[in-house]
Amino acid sequence: MRLEALWYEVSPYVYLVVGLASAAFSNSDFGLVCSALLLSASFTILRWRRLYRSPDRLESRKYSRPR
Length: 67
Prior knowledge:
This protein has helices spanning 3-25, 29-52.
């Protein structure tokens, strides 16, 4: 697996872990805002990927670029 493909698959989980660690160890409001942004980005990416990869959307991906 190429490095780009690996980062593409792992990045939402990295954002999730960093966001949780940032929220746990933050002492400022700015740190909590940054952790909230990381967590919301992680959940959004995971949701979009789950929706895109669902089997009922197969017909809409029929003409997309092959993997």
